[in-house]
Design brief:
The chain is of the alpha+beta class. The protein has 2 domains: 168 residues, no CATH class; 153 residues, no CATH class. The protein is built from 14 helices and 10 strands.
């Protein structure tokens, strides 16, 4: 297929709001052996879907039969500076301070697909973001969007790593971009050194069993003591390994208003979380990526942070939750926090 289609496609993707776009061949991922090692070492923790989908990740044709090209896109989000720290306020990863990116990316990818169908009638295409069995960072690198840093993030030399990725797979063979061939990390090890829980067991290798992001978002149930004491204020996700990265120093603010931080999702008052009823949680989490952790996960994280910070105003609310909450994880976390608070 002609190069002009690739150029027109990139212009259209940009017009739709994607900040990065590149095209990779729909071949087996280069990094599949890394995924297999990572799984074998137990680094996926309890993310059983990573194990179950391992074979599907071996080729993009598991997502679209006959796929020839993977159009990788990226969108910049909410790159504002760190939030002020008050003991009763929790930290939310930047990607989740605005509207849920999944719905946004899926909609934009559908629009790109519709555009492609007008250019090439009969073409087959499928848009995916995050949830499909695609090694997105590997394909992003192959599509020329950037390199995979020692913190495992896809880093664009122009835009940094505060980007979210998506892919439009198609059975059309479109002019491919060159893979990003450089590793611009050099001798830097800031992310590896800054991680408070030593989640990077080697450069490019994150052990989810030690990652604050994993524990606060993905893990269900009580949290090991070693991690519970190390959350450092994070109640949903973690940005430390990106905040310290020099490639994010000049990262631009995103141009997508929906991804900008919302006051109620940014820097939340955890004492107020402890008061919310079921209906309040439903309203709070509507349209937010934070709903992945569910009420129980978020309340658990809030209790742990308040306990570690010994926020005295939380005591009566923690007592109430530890005795009466219907969810055993919340009761556990509230008791854990009360013990910390009363330790003196
Ligand atoms: C599972 C998952 C997680 C897990 C595990 C993370 C991980 N590093 O694997 C947890 C819950 C911890 C997580 C956290 C986060 N995630 Co996440 N996650 C995913 C998911 C669904 C799969 C990732 C995966 O395949 N992991 C398997 C391992 C093997 O891959 P990897 O760590 O990326 O390692 C790559 C390379 O480093 C290399 N490699 C591995 N080992 C080695 C060893 C050597 C020596 C070398 C040279 C290379 C190498 O191979 C791998 C594949 O390319 C993707 C979406 C998707 N479908 O891809 C999003 C995704 C990676 N996450 C994303 C985001 C935003 C985050 C967070 C920033 C959220 C937050 N603020 O809390 C953190 C970042 C933590 C981090 N440093 O990775 C974005 C990343 C965007 C970007 N610019 O890179 C993605 C792409 C979602 C999206 N659609 O935008 N995530
Ligand atoms: S902090 Fe340094 S080592 Fe880590 S990803 Fe950024 S440039 Fe690479």
């Amino acid at each position: 297929m002609s190069e002009s289609l690739a150029d027109a496609l990139k212009l259209e993707a940009n017009r739709l709001g994607f900040d990065l776009v590149g095209i990779a061949p729909a071949d087996a991922p280069d990094d599949l052996h890394f995924l297999r090692d990572w799984l074998a070492q137990g680094c996926a923790a309890e993310m059983g879907y990573m194990e179950r989908q391992a074979d599907a990740r071996a080729h993009p044709s598991s997502i679209l039969d006959g796929a020839q090209s993977v159009i990788m896109v990226g969108i910049v989000y909410c790159a504002q500076g760190p939030v002020p720290e008050e003991p009763h306020r929790g930290k939310i990863a930047r990607y989740a301070r605005g509207a849920d990116y999944h719905a946004l990316l899926w909609k934009r990818l559908d629009q790109l697909k519709a555009w492609l169908e007008t250019q090439v009638p009969g073409v087959r295409a499928r848009g995916v973001a995050d949830t499909a069995p695609l090694l997105e960072r590997d394909f992003a690198r192959k599509a020329g969007l950037g390199w995979i840093g020692k913190n495992t993030m896809l880093i664009s030399p122009k835009l940094g790593s505060f980007t979210l990725l998506g892919a439009l797979l198609t059975d059309l063979r479109i002019e491919h971009d060159r893979p990003f061939a450089f590793d611009r990390c050099g001798t830097c090890t800031r992310c590896l050194d800054a991680c408070p829980t030593d989640a990077f067991i080697a450069p490019h290798r994150l052990d989810a069993r030690r990652c604050i992001s994993y524990w606060t978002i993905e893990h269900r149930g009580p949290i090991d003591d070693a991690m519970a004491t190390s959350l450092d204020g994070w109640v949903f996700g973690c940005d430390i390994c990106q905040d310290v990265c020099p490639w994010n120093r000049k990262a631009p603010a995103g141009r997508e208003p929906a991804l900008a931080a919302r006051p109620d999702w940014d820097n939340p008052d955890l004492l107020a979380w402890l008061e919310l009823d079921e209906a309040g949680w439903q309203i709070m989490l509507r349209g937010s990526a934070q709903k992945r952790a569910k009420r129980a996960g978020l309340l658990r994280n809030a209790c742990l942070v308040l306990g570690m910070r010994k926020v005295a105003e939380a005591e009566t609310r923690l007592e109430r939750l530890s005795e009466n909450d219907a969810d055993p994880t919340v009761r556990w976390a509230a008791s854990w926090a009360l013990n910390r608070l009363r330790e003196g």
